[in-house]
Predict the 3D structure of the following.
Amino acid sequence: MKAYNIFLFLFLIFPLFLSAQRGEGRKRAKDKKAYETNLKYYNDIFGAKDADFNITESPAEWNTEPIVMLCQKIHISFLRDSEKNGSKTKGVIRKRVLIQDKAALDDFSEFYYQNSSAFGIQHIKPDGTKKDIDLKNAVKVESDVPSFYSDDYHSEDYNKIAIPDLEVGDILDYFKVFTEKYSGNVELIAPISYSYPVVSQDIIFDVDKLWNFYYNTFNGAPEFVQDKEGGIDIKGRKRKIIKRFILKNTNQKAQKEERWDFINLTEPIIKVMALPPNSNFAGGRKRDEVKNSIEIRDLFRPAISSGETAGATILGTTNKRLRSLGVKQMRKKEKKVNTIYTALRLDFINQSLIYRAAIAGTPLMTNKISTTSTSGSMNADTYFSMKSNVFAAMFSTLLKKNDIESEIVQIVPRYFGEVQDVITRKEIEYGVYVPSLDKYFWTLNNYRNPVDINYDMAGATGYKIAKKNLKRRGNTFDEVTIPASEASDNISSTKLNIQVKEDNSFDVNSVFEYTGRYKESHNSLFLFQIPILEEDYDKLSSEKDKAKMNRAKNRKSYRRIKERNETKKEELSENKKEAIENWLKGDFELDKLENFEVLSHGRFPNNNILSIEANFTAKSYLQKAGPNLIFDIGKLISGQIELDNDEIKERNKTIELGYARTIKNSFKITLPEGYKAQGIDALNMNVDNLYAAFVSEANQEGNTLIINTTKTYKKQSISKKEWSHLVEMLEAAYTFSQKKIILKK
């Protein structure tokens, strides 16, 4: 009987085993066929027969460069997607790089490459010997990838493989074939200059029929030329129905990097936007439109229309909230508008937390979202930002329902260039202007306050139109320039009360305060969702809704959730403490963070300052010198910019600081009894010109040393001919940071 059972078991499992073997065999055969198909596609585009990849030597002028790109070609096909669920591109990239010094060997001895439909590396010696690198020992990359290996066309995961016996003078010739899927339009802004020189490069776009294609080149990049013979279709056939555009570029010098540079305004770049046949964002254009320009006003209506659709659910929720608060009956317009903004912010965050997995990356939200946690509001660093066209559509609608007239603005941030240079949608931001308040409002996120200035928009240009006129044809769009922010709008303030202990370490009570851009950059460090959402609900719920919530608090299910949240809050608080401790280590000789407290989160108009108090211990500022102490006092203002001689002498580009700003430091240092500070006169500095300032004052009152410094960048943009004025301030600040004084017994 037992033998029968065993036989029956084997009889039953054997066909399954055979089936699994056949399935695995079919998969391997299918993968091999797909690889061979993609390899053929590569050879059809620019494979082994491409004579441009026979280059073996660098021009003499680049012999001192660590690497030289002898030849690179990028071929991107915009394809019709038979699945009709988005759009896709098929790409082929081939590069041939010459290694010219020992330092570069470290960068290429481990070669990084992306998961691709087909990929290969050939190692070529100076004598012409060629070896194909076996990829079987490649490993998946979990860490950051060196910038050389990344590009703007392909987004899959990386692997790395060792290149044995790599030496100076060797060449690596490699290629990849890949497919990228998109949920809608394809938008690219990509450089044609890099940190290394390029002897020869081609960028080729093949555009299938029914696609709309907009393109142009800027800042000295060669123009695209259309090939009348057409391009290659998905099957590798040359067809005139496929429109081909080619950019040819030779002897491209390496980028000369300068700090404070908007590279989209200074380095040669290309811009491309391709709209697939199923795009709902064509702006009423016919299909097969191919142009080297685009009129951004034509994108106004479809952007707002799609924004209204994406935000419909939240709109209903916020309308209900505003009615319960009696917003329409409020007499002060400013209070009414601010309440509408903060109510919309609350409902957007709440829905985003609930439906995070479903809405991330949809037309509602930008892709600025942390995915380290999926437990609702329990992720300390979750960041939600509404797409600007969705915000403009919803906010203007809510204003109108509450009797506030508004205009929608369409702005091009300065780092993208001028209005006439726009090619892609991602260069455009939308906002709302309320004439009765003479105030601009910008897309919301977890932290943004209705009175906050969006520094990205400051000084930028674009168009505006009244919401009621937007759907009418033939209306005039008014040109508009957003006011620039002032140095007083963006303040970073550090206040330290320092007690010097007997072992010469410090007890420090610190208060950090931020406004404007500084507040925006520190929000995610100091804040997390639970406390700020609780305050939002308290401020933006009617008494009736609060009573309903209080009744819900008595339910067992609510108590369980609250207990879980309180436990999680403690964990998050510890996570925040660790993050803040690491942040403090970047500026101070931190020993231990004792505690911290958020004094003000700055998310409401009546309190617009982000403020945190922290108590910590510090060391390494004082060194004994006999009975005296040497005090590295300049280190208290943390790292200052150290310019090298070449940088001081020459500036080739406009200085794009992004925003005017002020950095303040205030120190009160209680010295040990019997010590007197010597050399504090050298801490009094005053450099002040039209573009920048550094002012410091120091004095001693009893056993307390008082020091105040103010560093000011007065403009958001400075002409390169005025560089010396900024250098004057930077040198003064750096000199202060190196100062030492003596505490004499």
About this structure: The first strand starts at residue 67 and ends at 79.
